[in-house]
Amino acid sequence: MPGASAVARRPVLPGFVRATLGFLRRQPFAVAGLAIYLLFIVTAIFADQIATHDPREILFRGAYRVARYLPPSTTHYLGTTAGGRDVFSQLVHGSRSALQVGVTAAFFVVVIGTLLGLLSGYLGGWVDRVIMRIADIILGLPFLPFVLVISALTRPGTTTLVASVALMLWPNTARVIRSQVLSLRERGWVEAARVTGCSTWRIIFVHIAPQVAPLAALYGSIAVGWAILTEASASFLGFGDPAAISWGLMLQDAFANQALSRGVWSWFVPPGLCIVALVLAGFLVSRGSEKLLFPKLGD
Amino acid sequence: MDALLDVRDLAVHYRTAAGPVRAVDGASFTVPAAGIVGLVGESGCGKSTLGRALMGVLPRAASIAAGSAVFEGRDLVTLAPAERRKLLWRRLAFVPQTAMNALDPVQRLSAQMQEVLVERGGLSRAAAGTRAAALFAMVGLEAGRLRDWPHQFSGGMRQRASIALALALNPALLIADEPVTALDVIVQRQILDVMRDLQARLGLAMILVTHDVAVVAYACDRVVVMYAGRVVESGPVRAVLEAPLHPYTMGLMNAFPDLERAGGELVPIEGAPPSLLNPPGGCRFAARCPFAEARCAQDPALVEHAPDHQVACWRAPEAPALRPLASEAATWAR
Amino acid sequence: MGALIAANDLVKAFPASRSLRDMMRGQRPVLRAVNGVSLEVAAGRALGIVGESGCGKTTTARLLLRLEEATSGSVLFEGQNVSALRGAALLPFRSRVQLVFQNPFDALNPRFTIRRSLAEPLRNFGVPPDQQEARIREAMGRVRLDPPEAYLDRHPHELSGGQLQRVVLARALVTHPRAIIADEPVSMLDVSVRAGVLNVLRRARDELQLAAIYISHDLALIRYVCEAVAVMYLGRIVESGPTAEVIAAPAHPYTRALVAAVPVPRVDQDRGDLPIRGGLPDQLNQPSGCAFRDRCPLAFARCAEEAPPLRAIAPGRHAACHLA
Start and end of every ABC transporter domain (chain C) (predicted)? Predict the structure, then answer.
């Protein structure tokens, strides 16, 4: 077969690594997003080493004078709070809870949303109707108030927050996955899987699921941002875990102590910027992953 | 021969990350003032790109890299866009592959006809109405159906409507890109009959881009065979199809199942066309050609081998001896 | 010789969209895409089903493959009624009746290597892993993809259309089927590679004594690969018989039009008017009696009154026309 020689000339497997590197060169925004993520992840891992003080420790100046509202200095890079705690150290430790909430919530959003989207799209019928009606109801609920109500009714804390964010956000993922599945199930190779004896479950999880994985990842990275924002909002409004150290709580603390009118910029601007940066990173990465994870197969 | 359109060494390149793809790479042919010219070849041979280049409707990434296309004494390649736009519809018209692309789905057909006839043709609204009805009659549609929306038409009727629309301003040249490919045989035949009938009645020139030799044999007066971005053979349909000079044309003829020819093996052309990113030197067909020789490493020029019959093959003089060999599967199997 | 695979009075009705008037009358119109189709194919034989788009030929194929449930009628495989089989009980039938797809660019999972695409059916049908490689190589040999190593570790987007269609055929053959159904197997391929794929299909059928059913709009192609043909019009078979005879002397006026419309690569050919009027009627508002009568140049009073049944007109030939 003469075609074989033409095929053999091409290099074997272009190499995912090389493709990724080339992509990074072409996608500066995604690189920026990844860099921000990386910075926060490193910070969260080495928080104990990076922080200059214990974030919960009330610092004193001289004998029995709480070191409140200290301006930024070489000892306190971002000064101290009204309670005499080191802002920089709180900021560093805050990245832990932010990432923890963001990543776990995104994980559950992706898992629940993808699973229900796959079942709904491929099985159709009453399964589809039930799942989509539940999704409609949840999409009709106001997001933040609902999270706050759940937090208020249960024990406020990270678990509650993650659970309620996952509960509120899966429908978006599920709907998008479902519509993708609806078009995939019409593809010839899905039909071929049926003809060649694949069980329904195998078609869904072996043939179709890998195709929707990039889309799920996209919605996951958006969910990271949403979860962090929600956590910050809930904490700011006093529904967070009071014992935790988070950027939302820092903002609430600053707000409660009129840091704004006192002009203590070094207290409330940094956590705000961190939230913006991390949420932004999620969107940058998701924009980029769209192009990286939808390679033009068959081109 | 007095040519309406004279295409010389036309090259159209697509810009890609890997470099220019030479979709059309030095194509030359002429279109006489009247008659249907079939532009035939496999997918990726550049036939559609060529048709689109002539109409000035190339995709963004493509551009004409070299050559000329002299239409009624003016070179379409160097013509200013504004001047070229003036020619569209009035002198040059286009029928795309899917009629849905030619028809606006949210306008009644009468409105689309009016737009072309009044805005571009300068007719009065009343005259445009009469003309639209006449055009519909010409392609075999009832005038009453002008009030319909495109979605109310079947595939064949849509193709008729888009031909009527293209003919609205009496163009001298109609370029139709695979106009019958998506249609069933009966409808396909009806559309080809409409095109032949219109050509004879209006005496205009048509270029019919197709992959189907049988369509060319049925509807065309002349044929231009393209392979890998180049013209390999051209001439009157009878001369080219009954006594092909280029091995690729011979192969194409034998690769088709023929309703009237019983039994026997079909003869495939093994292999695939070359990449147009880095086309090989010499004859582009040499890698698949059973008759290739050492001299095929040199590029054969498109020369007039018989009166009005051009071919780009070194072994064209031996064609009568090669033809019977080309009809045997063993010749091509390697 | 008995039939390997047969269809017995298959009907597939789809609910059609209702107009306001239908709703007010409480009517629910149905569209009979396939309306009483019976056919049979013996081992080693090939039947072509030919017709225009919308005639029900693809739906017939899907019913035969049990990809869709028939509204009524049955599918017989090796004498056994397989219409009622479900789930695991359907697996033996699936391994015995395979499909070759129309669009090779869409028929293979883009993320699977060719080897994995071919191994997947073997896994599903319980072929032990140590036998799979041999079966895969055997199938690749049958479709003339030599050497198999040049293809097995590639992904579909690295192959050409003709190569892909051979892989699709190899996937169908890897399960050792008894019957194969090919839906427009070459219509998406380039002219120069069509012949190669058709030759491979024909050879596989001969060597393995498969029962083959080809679905196509192209009578010339059917002529090349099938000894017998069934012509469908609006969900019914209107004529059937040996392909050469049907083409040489069509008995049904629709077949006559179809044969006349097929373009041939000859300069001298009949360019007369087609013996047919108009276009396909709206399937929901078919004429009374014979469904073809409003396009038929020979229609007469009786055609409006009674629908002609498909009856024998000569040995091995059937037609549904009062005049046949």
Answer: 5-259
